[in-house]
Write a structure and sequence with these properties.
- By secondary structure, this protein is mainly β.
- Helices cover about 5% and strands about 35% of the residues.
- The longest helix has 10 residues, at about 10-15.
Length: about 550
């Protein structure tokens, strides 16, 4: 049974800060999100997914005065990976089973919508019981659920307006990502690449929930690319779409990343296996594919490309270029022309031994002797690990420095293929899963890195002692980069040199996405906190040193 609670006290407090009636969010408002510092209307703080704000009241000189303004308990012990949405004096935050509306100046709850799901759905979630955020459009909040439904709520009251089923969770499908709204269409992806599923992207009518289109991300026989799958292997071929895409309104192209192939054993599906581990550019109104680029053909290593990257305008060889920049899990940093998918740069940004390089003419990886021995049945140590050179959490961009800021990982893993066996609702891997090689205590397993996208080299790195960070980053016009630690510290560093300028202990690990916004001339910084996620599943004993517990924190200058 769905429950909606309206708290009159919270509504009264809200009226002191902002109008009580939400203004309609239009497509034009969503397009302008990156340039409207008072609102956060999109995942990525703008369609370009740069997670950059020009706000500079909090800067390298003043950040030392940043102090907590309020904290709100999410009453949830799971990992918290949500990005807040802020509009018209209201903040919206999701967990796996709730959506809450908060007064962003006080943290007081305005309404809370709860979702009940079948108990066995939690056994099916691959990599943590999480939700990564909501979307807002035309007075409605849109989100997805672990049991593969999409729903719309009234942004004023939290009342459920519609709910539709996208897939059967018993087949291994799940949904965790924030929807993307572009071209008047609500778009969602699907998780479940470890369960022998077939990935897809859906387009929904925002008013009614009617399905407008579905595009599968493994090519069937007769489709373009269908000949890259032997037999019917595409039907269990993976290519999940479990993160949110980006959008270029001028080109009218949505960019969506796809994940691993299924099973992980590549020898049972010989071929490139389109469109696994790729970025797909398509039209939002129809889902029509325009171009694709495949990062890891025949993917043996779970090198998801689901974190699509950023849309950046930059000079290359003296020319202004519109590019898509992605720090791929396979360890290479790619720069593509986002109009046509042409490869402009591809260089390692972490230690890589599975491939020697990316061939710039063909765009394909040149596989190393390590990968060749694995294909022949060998047991090898592979860099980067199954977690990738960077995991799912997004990086950010600062146009003043021309650098991408990402939490990178320096870990390997043991890899040996095995015979796959498909069983509905169970992992379909075809390899001997033995986890990752944790770094010795005292040795960094990851860094906060300031990366030159054209070379992959870091201008500076800040080492994470002990556990690496799985948090997202936020860049600002104040010359700062905000991120969080697995041990609970929320920090700000100087974007030019990586010097830590401020930190605050939030009391639980941070794997969420920091945001900043402005109201009545005051800049605020917010973060959703709560240890968990994929790192918790790897059994690192150091996780026990950090308490669980979800909360939202907001900070301002004192």
């Amino acid at each position: 049974m769905l429950m909606t609670r309206w708290l009159a006290a919270g509504a009264t407090l809200l009226s002191l800060a902002a109008p009580t009636t939400l203004q309609a969010q239009t497509m034009e408002a969503l397009k302008a999100d990156a340039n409207t510092p008072g609102d956060i209307l999109t995942y990525g703080m703008g369609y370009n997914n740069q997670r950059y704000s020009a706000l500079k009241q909090v800067n390298t000189q003043t950040v030392g005065k940043l102090a907590p303004l309020w904290s709100y308990s999410l009453n949830n012990p799971q990992g918290q990976e949500s990005q807040p949405i802020v509009h018209n004096g209201v903040m919206y935050v999701t967990t796996h089973n709730t959506t809450v509306a908060l007064n962003p100046l006080t943290g007081k709850q305005i309404w809370k919508h709860e979702i009940e799901m079948p108990a066995d759905v939690f056994k099916m979630a691959c990599c943590g019981i999480v939700n990564r955020g909501a979307a807002i459009f035309d007075g409605k909040i849109y989100r997805v659920t672990l049991d593969a439904h999409v729903l719309a709520l009234d942004a004023n009251t939290g009342k459920q307006l519609w709910k539709v089923k996208a897939a059967n969770y018993l087949d291994g499908h799940a949904m965790t990502a924030a929807p993307l709204i572009a071209g008047g269409v609500v778009m969602t992806g699907i998780a479940g690449g470890e369960y022998g599923t077939r990935g897809f992207i859906d387009g929904w009518d925002p008013q009614t929930g009617k399905q407008l289109w579905r595009k599968y991300t493994t090519a069937a026989p007769g489709d373009k690319g269908g000949d890259t799958w032997p037999g019917d292997t595409h039907s269990k071929g993976g290519a999940p779409t479990w993160l949110t895409g980006a959008y270029d309104p001028e080109l009218d192209l949505v960019y969506w990343g796809t994940g691993n192939a299924g099973p992980w054993n590549p020898e049972v599906r010989k071929g490139d296996n389109l469109y696994v581990c790729s970025v797909i550019a398509f039209r939002p109104k129809t889902g029509e594919f325009v171009w694709h680029y495949q990062f890891s053909p025949n993917d043996p290593y779970d090198y998801d490309a689901t974190e699509v990257g950023m849309l950046v305008d930059m000079k290359i060889d003296g020319q202004d270029r519109k590019v898509l920049a992605q720090a791929n899990r396979n360890g290479f940093f790619y720069v593509l022309d986002r109009a046509n998918g042409k490869l402009l740069a591809a260089n390692p940004y972490v230690k890589v031994n599975w491939a020697d390089k990316i061939d710039m003419a063909s765009g394909r990886p040149v596989e190393s002797e390590v990968t060749k021995r694995i294909r022949a049945g060998g047991d090898e140590t592979v860099w980067p690990s199954v977690l990738g050179g960077k995991n799912w959490t997004p990086m950010s961009w600062n146009p003043a420095t021309g650098l991408a800021y990402a939490n990178t990982l320096e870990m390997s893993w043991p890899y040996q293929i095995a015979k796959p066996e498909y069983k509905k609702g169970e992992w379909y891997l075809g390899m001997n899963m033995r986890g990752v090689n944790f770094p010795p205590k005292g040795t960094p397993g990851g860094y906060l890195s300031a990366i030159d996208p054209m070379t992959g080299k870091s201008k500076w790195q800040m080492a994470w002692p002990g556990q690496p960070s799985m948090a997202g980053t936020l860049s600002t016009g104040g010359g700062l980069v905000f991120t969080g630690a697995a041990t609970g510290e929320f920090i700000a560093v100087d974007a030019t040199n990586g010097k830590k300028l401020w930190e605050f202990q939030t009391s639980s690990g941070i794997i969420g996405l920091p945001v900043t916004w402005e109201q009545n001339g005051q800049q605020y910084v917010s973060i959703v906190v709560g240890a968990g996620g994929v790192w918790a599943l790897l059994g690192d004993e150091r996780m026990a040193e950090t308490p669980a517990g979800g909360s939202v924190w907001t900070f301002a200058l004192k």
